[in-house]
UniProtKB/TrEMBL annotation:
InterPro entries named among the record's database cross-references: 6-PTP_synth/QueD (IPR007115), 6-PTP_synth/QueD_sf (IPR038418)
Record keywords, A-Z: Lyase, Metal-binding, Queuosine biosynthesis, Zinc
Pathway stated in the Swiss-Prot or TrEMBL entry: Purine metabolism; 7-cyano-7-deazaguanine biosynthesis
Cofactors, names only: Zn(2+)
Source domain of life: Bacteria
Assigned EC number: 4.-.-.-
Residues that coordinate or bind Zn(2+): 14, 27, 29
Name of the molecule in the record: 6-carboxy-5,6,7,8-tetrahydropterin synthase
Record-level Gene Ontology MF annotations: 6-carboxytetrahydropterin synthase activity; metal ion binding
Binding note for cofactor: Binds 1 zinc ion per subunit.
Length: 148
């Protein structure tokens, strides 16, 4: 079994409803996301993907379409909180708003990312690990063995 990792960056704003610190204010991060999948490398001379667990390019397509294209330069708001109104106001003024059904912390974003990616991976490949940096010094991790 081999693990392979692809790294992504995206620029996203968020606002934490009822948080007791500076992040109750809308602000942005240059998020850095590490996506690690595991599987057995293909061993077949006739397969163009010979030697690969999965083509890095295929991971890129999945993560881009599920996460990066959706969240990049958007603002994440907790749609299950009074911030729903704030989000609607911004959206009405032409801004890109993502209404989450959770508080958009690093932790909850990881759960969401894991669910979205797992649903799209080929069946012979498993999501093994995610790491999401909010800042250079603050990050969360998701491990398959903790969540399956
Ligand atoms: N457990 C969590 N704590 C905090 C989260 C979070 O998602 N999970 N988020 C925030 C803020 O959104 C933001 O990330 C600020 O975090 P923090 O590390 O406190 O910010 P700094 O600017 O001090 O970061 P440095 O990298 O240390 O400069 C708050 N807490
Ligand atoms: Zn933040």
């Amino acid at each position: 079994m081999i693990r392979i990792t692809k790294i992504f960056t995206f620029e996203t704003a968020h606002v934490l409803y009822n948080y007791d610190g500076k992040c109750k204010n809308m602000h942005g991060h240059s998020y850095k996301l590490f996506v690690t999948v595991k599987g057995k490398p293909i061993n077949n001379l006739d397969d163009p993907k010979n030697g690969m667990v999965v083509d890095f390019g295929d991971i890129k397509k999945i993560v881009n379409s599920e996460i990066i294209d959706v969240w990049d330069h958007a603002v994440l708001v907790n749609g299950d909180s009074p911030h729903q109104e704030l989000g609607q106001d911004l959206e009405g003024k032409g801004h890109k708003v993502i209404f989450c059904n959770y508080q958009p912390t690093c932790e909850n974003m990881l759960y969401d990312i894991a669910e979205k990616i797992q649903n799209k991976l080929p069946k012979e490949v498993q999501l093994a690990y995610l790491k999401l940096h909010e800042t250079e010094n603050s990050y969360g991790e998701w491990f398959a063995e903790d969540n399956n």
